[in-house]
Each structure stands twice: as C-alpha cells, then as structure tokens.
Specification:
Length: 112
C-alpha cells in the first residue's frame, strides 16, 4: 500500500484506484458537492477523502457516522486532482466498478 505522500506526488497514481491508510484528522459535511469529506494523515502527509452519496457508498456513510478525529481507517478510492490538489474520491464518478468499498472496523489511535 503506498504512503499518502507517494499518492500525492507520483503522477502514476492519478486517475487510478488507490488504497491508503491513516488517522482521521478532520471530518466535514459540505453543503454543496460530496456528502462527506474527511482528511487522513500518515507519517508522510495528509490527503482529503470525499464520499459522494450513491448506492455504492451507503456502507461508507454509515461507518463514518461513528468516526471521530484520531480514528484510523483504510480507504480505497479514485485519486483525482481538484483545484490542483489530489483528493481520493469514493462514489459517483470517483469510483470505478472494481473499487472495493469494504472498510475495516475503525479503531481509536493509541494516545501516548
């Protein structure tokens, strides 16, 4: 599984389905556009993940109802630039038919 920085900086990942994992930093519910957006980070960087509401994303939206900053999650979605910044999109045009929407159970990050 590539690091977040590799997905953000390596053009070979653009326009393809990618998997990354990390700790949730922020969760937002935009008024326009995607149903849900959240930012995850690993040791190499952070990336915004957007979830569009459609039949395929119901599982993700249900799982994310209980998510909080500090939880760890693995996501598989479509790496797509938006305003010159790479996002990972789940749902709508962002996910190809071979993309897995299975999410691992969320776990709280251990606090030191």
């Amino acid at each position: 599984m590539p690091t977040i920085n590799e997905v953000l900086t390596n053009k070979e990942f653009l326009g393809k389905t990618v998997s990354v994992q990390g700790e949730i930093v922020e969760i937002t519910h935009p008024e326009v556009g995607p149903k849900l957006a959240f930012t995850i980070k690993d040791d190499t960087g952070q990336v915004r993940v957007v979830i569009w509401e459609d039949e395929e994303t119901k599982q993700w939206l249900e799982i994310m109802k209980s998510a909080k900053p500090g939880d760890r999650v693995a996501v598989t979605g479509y790496a797509k630039p938006f305003k010159n910044v790479v996002n990972i999109q789940i749902g709508r045009a962002g996910v190809r038919s071979n993309c897995s929407l299975r999410a691992p159970p969320l776990r709280r990050a251990r606090r030191s």
